[in-house]
């Protein structure tokens, strides 16, 4: 890969995504104040001491943004991993095995998808113990339905290729066919989707937190911070817009990278996208 | 304007900008200064392998470049005007009126939602050349001239209601309808079966003669173009190799490359006699897909150790289905397969690993038969590892030995399929089959997607390997020239049944049954006047009956 061929838009995406990732990883080192220290007045404007001002309880907004990045990115990333491992494996298995296994899995997924995700998550989270593990699993499993459909569709296409038939004729097992013959050919599509799903996870988590069922206070996450500061908007205080803006910027930057990957790793036959 | 040079292509240069993902765009020249002229009513055959630039040159006479192709230099005069200088509206008035085009795949060239006649006269009406009634009358005349059945009413049908060969002739009628001066035929018979091809070819030739239109006839099959063209231009890598009258090219080719094209398929194969005991006997096989009708019915064939059984037939005759039954991917509905004296389980998934190893397969499309994400080394090494459990250095040695057998350099092992040419890919597929050290290899149309010279090399390699490894082939093909070159015994299939079966000499010696006769006489031969001779003798026969 030649660095010079990366388009400007992808550089922009890489730059801001790394900035967020850097903030998340080194949060305790770079945050000027503690996560829940009350350091000033309620909703102080931006100043030298508080670069982004303070929030509804007088905590430093920049520090909470930095810690929030950590929570938001970690949980979204873990949930994406759960959703991809589960969805991609089951989707490809359904395509390769076919028959009743495919029917069972696909109809099960249809059933899950027929209930609006947010409502389903609200119901489940309100009866389950509210901790981060439950949150990740619920988000991961609900989102896996989308990945399942995508990877099944891609795998069905690859599964009818002659080289898969050649492998079956050879007597290869299903695990080999899924991991060695189909997965490498589905990977570019899945990687591009990975970026998109990650963003949906961030939005999903923010929505849950905003509704009070996601990350519980005093822990900070961007969705929860919008909720905490939303009343300030009435008084013309922009504190709620900062985490909201961060979510938007992250979404756009990850998408810029995903677009570039989708264009770059087109299939070797020279099809889709690239030209 | 000069009738003898009404099409005048001067020093044509054509380039294309390649935009591979991850690399900066590159400009490649694909046609390097080709010049030619064509008189009114003459037919020029453009012949060459894939990538020779023949279609690109053909399309340039419509001032058109397909998929990013750009005409970068030279002039194309049609009727005395340089069409490359024409503006958009000038070209719109010119295309389809003075020059029209017949594509390879007529099925893709028609809109399935409209009746044939409306599509045939569309260009004529668009250019305001005739009234609707006149255009329809002309279309019907053309249908008759192209020997289509029911010329008065066939135009009322939809594209899916006529056969592929008929559709190709309707497309020719569409091109002829606006009375153009020139038609570009781009491989019009390549996708057709031989028995259909001969009808289409005769119809096209007849229509050209009747209407006095000039034509550029693009094909990779010299025997076909020899039947219709007055002159032939041989192209290779965008350069003219030789240009002369058809008679001179066929009978007295000057350049080495042309000589190779003319003498292609001259492999002489000494037929072997069947042994007492066949290696594989497929007995009374009946098979079909899903709950559909039987695709093959009551077929019995034998395959002998170290010999080749050629299974011949048109598309839809059931020859590939027979192969799928042998592999076990499609278990037979009834009948049995015996292998080395014992009965083979019908379903592939129930067969022991050794039986799977003994029957290997090579596919028609080498592109899709190899995983694009695996290296050549992995592709041909996997069967060795899988069946024999060989790993490490020993595996590398075996891979190198296999590459040597298929006449490819050892460093190919680290390359990916996309980096290989078509012929090399097919060689790798042969190596993958050989790696399992099988007793029989099923070759499913392995040469039909390749250029004639490359296909010749593959056939020679297969014969050579058969001698050395004593492996049997079940060779499925629609190409009788290939069959003559390699078969020991032949099974002619027609509509799912065996039309004729026996040793090569037996099958190819008269008296023939009707179907075998039709099939054999339809294979184009590389001599002038062959088409007329065959059609004349067929007319005599039908008159005699």
Beta-strand portion of chain A reads: under 5%
User: Helix and strand succession of chain A?
Assistant: HHHHHHHHHH
What is the overall silhouette of chain A? elongated
CATH class of the largest domain in chain B: Alpha Beta
CATH topology of chain A: MetI-like fold
What would you call the structural class of chain A?
A: mainly alpha
Distance between the termini of chain B: 51 Å
Poorly predicted runs of chain B? none
CATH superfamily of chain A: MetI-like
The profile of the biggest β sheet of chain B is:
6 strands, mixed
How many whole angstroms does the radius of gyration of chain B measure? Answer: 25 Å
**Spatial gap, N to C terminus of chain A:** 18 Å
Strands ordered across the widest β-sheet of chain B: 6-7-8-3-9-10
Count up the domains of chain B: 2
User: What is the architecture of the largest domain in chain B at the second tier of CATH?
Assistant: 3-Layer(aba) Sandwich
Poorly predicted regions of chain A: 267-275
- In DSSP terms (H or I, runs of 4 or more residues), the helix count of chain B works out at 22
Count the beta strands of chain B: 20
